[in-house]
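Q: My labmate handed me this sequence with no annotations at all. I'd like to see what the chain might look like in three dimensions before we decide whether it's worth expressing. Could you predict it?
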Amino acid sequence: MRGFSDGARLGITHSRDYAMGTNITLQAADGHSFDAYAAQPADGKRYGGIVVVQEIFGVNQHVRDTVDLYAAQGYTAIAPALYDRVQKNYESGYEQADIQAGLAVRQKVPLEGALADIKASIDHLAKQDMTVGIVGYCYGGMLVWQSAAKIDGLSAAVSYYGGGVQDQGDLQAKCPTMLHFGEKDHAIPIDKVKAFVAKQPDLKVHIYDANHGFNCDHRGSYDATAAKTALDRTLTFFGENLGK
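A: Here is what I predict for the chain of 244 residues:
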């Protein structure tokens, strides 16, 4: 059993005990089978379901920790292995070589395929009679924005520094959506973020004095203050829209 220490590390002050996560297999509408990492609260109390969408580094330890942390807050959480479409069991660290390798795999994953896997994950949670939210980081942040605009069945969406989102201002979210960006992000120019925000006056958008990847404590760009503030806002947002 894992517990409060992980939650405290990321600024969670009311974490619950939770069961260790497990690997499951799901199937998308196009017949593709893929793995997913799933966890749920140990005490059985559920506030809803959350799909956690990976960065370019696969469903690695940080993504699994994130799933576990949302489970600690009372949500049934699941992270689909989107890279299973081109390479099973892919995960990596955060060195420059890992970044290049992750980008190469990402380019082979069709957008519609990734959205199909996310949709299957949403449906898996919805079939358990839960309202469903989604959160994603980097590559996953972009997919969250796409999902919020294109996939039915979501009650809330949260995107962290989604690469490319700034150029997708013509999309309109179907559910309440929050976005987090870093003002110092070298990959997402802040002027483009502000132009995007101007097109989306109904979105909750937060900009932090931080760089790309500020939420991930496995990366050199980790910013504890920004990560805690963003997490607090995200948990409040999910609480308002998924129930608590």
